[in-house]
Amino acid sequence: MARLVCAWVAVxxxxxxxxxxxxxxxxxxxxITIVVSLGAGTGMDVLAxxxxxxxxxxxxxxxxxxxxxxxxxxxxxxxxxxxxxxxHTLVVLTSxxxxxxxxxxxxxxxxxxxxxxxxxxxVKSPFILVANPNMPFKTVPEFIKHATQADPPLKYxxxxxxxLQHLSMEFAKxxxxxxxxxxxxxxxxxxxxxxxAGHVDVxxxxxxASIPLIKEGRLRALAVSASQRLPLLPxxxxxSEAARAPDFEAVSWHILLAPAKTPxxxxxxxxxxxxxxxxxxxxxxKVSNIGLIPFDTPTVDGMNDYMKSERVKWGSLVEKLGLKGxx
Length: 327
Prior knowledge:
Elements: H1 2-16, E1 32-36, H2 43-59, E2 63-67, H3 74-81, E3 89-93, H4 95-104, E4 116-125, E5 127-131, H5 140-149, E6 154-158, H6 164-176, E7 180-184, H7 188-197, E8 202-206, H8 207-215, E9 220-224, H9 239-242, E10 252-259, H10 264-278, H11 281-289, E11 293-294, H12 300-320
Parallel strand pairs: 1-2, 1-3, 6-7, 6-8
Antiparallel strand pairs: 3-10, 4-10, 4-11, 5-8, 5-9
C-alpha cells in the first residue's frame, strides 16, 4: 500500500511538473516580469520602472519591465492571461482593457472578469477639459450653458470613437443635456494642435499633452475629469466640483494584476509591498510630476468592486451610443 501511495505521488508530481502551484514560502524563486501595456517612455512605463526597482529590493529577485503595446492594450492582457499563475509574470493594464474593451470589441482573447486577480490600483490618469482660448466661456457652468445654446453645436476632439476621451465627453453630454459634434483624430498631438488653432472648440485631453499648451496660454483649462485636483494644475477644479455633480468622474487608471489562480499568499504579499511603495513620499511626488494622481489602492475585493462599477458605467454608455461590438 505504501508503495502504491508513493507511486501515485510520483506520477502526480511528474504530471504537474512546472505547472504545480507556486510555494508562497519560496516566492519569488526567479525573475519577475512586469508586462507594461503601453510603450516605453509613457507615464505608465516610467512609473512601472520606478516601482519595479523598489519591488526588486523588497523581494530579493530581479524585476524586469517588458513593454507590450498594441491592440488597445489587449496584447499585453492576452499574454499574461495565459501565463503560469505563480506570481512571476504580472501586467499593468488600464480601464480600456479592464472596463471598456469587452463592450466595444466583438472578440477578445481574454476575460477581464475571470483571467486576472488585482494586486494594486495605484494611480488615476485624468483628462483636462480644455477649450480654445477664443471661446466665450472660462468656467464649467459657462461651458455647459454655452453648449446647451450653441447653434451650430460645439465641436469636440478625441482620439476616436470608444476612446475614453470620447466617452468622457459623451458622458458629460448625457449628464448635462447638451449637444456637441465629435471630431475624431488618429493621434492626440494633432487633436491638441487643432484645438489650439481653433479648428475644434473643446476636448478632454491627457494631462501630459495639454499642460504645456495651457501654460503657454494656447489652451484654456476648464476642469479636471478626476474627482480630485491635479497637483500640476492646483487652480483647476474637478469637473464634479465645478458642475456641482459629485457623481461625475471620467478617468483612466493603472492597475497591476496577476493571472487568475495565483496563490492568495503571493497576491497578499505583492499587494502589501505595492501599497507600501506607492505610499512613499518620493513616489507620490513622481506620480504627480508626470500628470497623474496618486491613489491609495483598495483591497483586492475593493478593486474588483471598482472595476465592476466601471464596466457598468462605460459599458452602458457604449451601448447607448450604438458602439457595442463595433470594433
